[in-house]
Amino acid sequence: MANVISNVALVPGIYVMKIEGNFRGRMGQFYMLRSGRNYPLLPRPISIYDIGEDYISFLYRVVGEGTSLFSQLQPGQEIQLEGPFGNGFPQVEGSLALVGGGMGTAPLLLAAKHYPHAHVYLGFVQQAFGVEAFEAVAASVQVKVGGSIIEQVDPAHYVNMFSCGPTPMLQALAMKTEGTSSRLYISTERHMACGIGACLGCTMRTREGNRRVCKEGPVFPVEEVEFDDLHGV
Ligand SMILES: Cc1cc2nc3c(=O)[nH]c(=O)nc-3n(C[C@H](O)[C@H](O)[C@H](O)COP(=O)(O)OP(=O)(O)OC[C@H]3O[C@@H](n4cnc5c(N)ncnc54)[C@H](O)[C@@H]3O)c2cc1C
Ligand code: FES
């Protein structure tokens, strides 16, 4: 169990929760979070948003019971968390674009901190959130509210791209990347029960066969992704 330092709504329904402690974790990895000791039964996977020597933080959207319980936590209250899990984004060299849509921006902040030369593209349906955190660390940040942020991304300019967001956005980026030498890595999502590769509940079909999103993922090179079996953010 760890103590909540703060749990603040950036916009209605979207919160940043900061938790006290010395945690491990790399860009694109996630933790399994549970607000109470035994309830709900299953913890929920949430990407590492930010991490420092004495804290870890998570950016989350309230969608159902588990995240609704998270949003009720007050500073000083306890939360259960285990991790880090998953492979995370790879170490890369050369120019890099970080392309996020909505909640898909969450796993990209650590990548922006890790690669200060990265160009960041953030797309939102109705309301932008968390943009200032990227502006504080990235070489450039482009934001689009409504429409498609992919129009502003030219994959030919980048040796590497990391992306997370809704499936149509990821697919549009993948199509635009085809025929370029840019390497695209996508962070995927699945319902998870164990988070450690034991239950097979998060299995996803890929071009390399079935893969567990919690263990072999959540990050996959785009060549492996079967878009018709992809659950975007
Ligand atoms: C690796 C990984 C990293 C994630 N990182 C974040 C993050 O940083 N921030 C964040 O807000 N969310 C993140 N998610 C999604 C988050 O885990 C779910 O929103 C959360 O589990 C919902 O729990 P709940 O109890 O609130 O909703 P539930 O009551 O469990 O579900 C509410 C609705 O959301 C759907 N749903 C729940 N989980 C998922 C899922 N994983 N994929 C698709 N649909 C789902 C359900 O089918 C249902 O319709 C991540 C998921 C994965 C797999
Ligand atoms: S969540 Fe159990 S194997 Fe991935």
From TrEMBL:
It comes from the Bacteria. The keyword Metal-binding applies. Its cofactor is FAD; [2Fe-2S] cluster. Keywords: 2Fe-2S, Electron transport, FAD, Flavoprotein, Iron, Iron-sulfur, Metal-binding, Transport. [2Fe-2S] cluster binds at C194, C199, C202, C214. SUPFAM superfamilies: Ferredoxin reductase-like, C-terminal NADP-linked domain, Riboflavin synthase domain-like. Residues 1-91 form the FAD-binding FR-type domain. It holds the Pfam family DHODB_Fe-S_bind. InterPro entries: Cyt_c3_hydrogenase_gsu (IPR012165), Dihydroorotate_DH_ele_sf (IPR037117), Dihydroorotate_DH_Fe-S-bd (IPR019480), FAD-bd_FR_type (IPR017927), FNR_nucleotide-bd (IPR039261), PyrK_electron_transfer (IPR050353), Riboflavin_synthase-like_b-brl (IPR017938). FAD binds at R44, P45, I46, S47, L59, Y60, R61, G66, T67. One of its GO terms (molecular function) is oxidoreductase activity. The keyword Transferase does not apply. GO terms for biological process: pyrimidine nucleotide biosynthetic process. Binds 1 FAD per subunit. Binds 1 [2Fe-2S] cluster per subunit. Gene3D superfamilies: Dihydroorotate dehydrogenase, electron transfer subunit, Translation factors. Belongs to the PyrK family. This is Dihydroorotate dehydrogenase electron transfer subunit. The lineage of its organism: Bacteria, Bacillati, Bacillota, Bacilli, Bacillales.
